[in-house]
Amino acid sequence: MSADDALARFASATSQHLTEPLPGGVAIRHVDAAEWHAVVDPLWNETLERPGLELAPLFTPAQAAGFRDLDEIIAGRLQHRMLFEAGGDVVGGYWGQQDTFARYYMTVTVFRPAWRGRGLYRELLERVTAAVAASGFRELHSRHRADNNAILVPKLRAGWVISAFEVAPKWGLTVHLRKYLVDGLAEAHEYRIDGSRVAELRRRGLDLE
To answer: Cα(153)–Cα(188) distance, rounded to whole angstroms?
Structure first.
């Protein structure tokens, strides 16, 4: 197995799970980072009920330049950038990307208000999960405002679990979620919560006291 194998798996899984239209004939179009930001950033800002803090004034020009240099080092990670279109108009967008430790980070999902409540996010979540699993990742993760029930509820119902809470400077209180794609990791998560799943984990070869 090699990096080329990983690239091939990712491309195949994307083609299989993330190309067909979403419910209601919403087309999926994969785009590059420049087009995605040009289209989705304004949409994201328009639809936020409570915008986060703009932190740029906190950084000196030298610090900001250093952040961009660091980001360039990891710019080649595997990722999905998609626009959702209906009748020639963009109705939403999605960005998800490779993270460390074989994790996949669901970074941004946004739909115009008129297109919410139609099952689009639930369908997208199923497809992204299938594509990520077929690509060989071991888990997905994401973070959301603690009051963002429109996202938290579907994910928790789909088997995601709460992994952490964080007070983020930009957004305030956020909830970190994970979806384990390996049964043993899900069992280990439960073990860390309440000590359960000991027998299963021992059968899998873990040395537990």
So the answer is: 23
What are the distances in angstroms from CA 105 to CA 128, 145, 179?
11, 16, 10
Contact between 184 and 204 (Cβ < 8 Å): yes
CATH class held by domain 1-53+79-121: alpha beta
* End-to-end CA, the chain: 35
> Across the 209 residues of the chain, what is the mean pLDDT of every consecutive 10-residue run?
90 97 96 96 88 90 93 90 96 96 96 94 97 97 94 95 96 97 94 93 89
pLDDT at 159: 95
- Res 64: pLDDT: 94
- What is the spatial distance between Cα 128 and Cα 140, in angstroms, rounded to a whole number? 9
How much is the pTM?
A: 0.93
CA atoms within 13 A on the CB side of 57: 2
In the chain, CATH 3.40.630 sits at: 1-53+79-121
- HSE-CB at 135 with a 13 A cutoff on CA atoms is 30
For residue 7, the one-letter residue type is L
Nearest CA to 152 out of 171, 181, 133, 179 is that of: 179
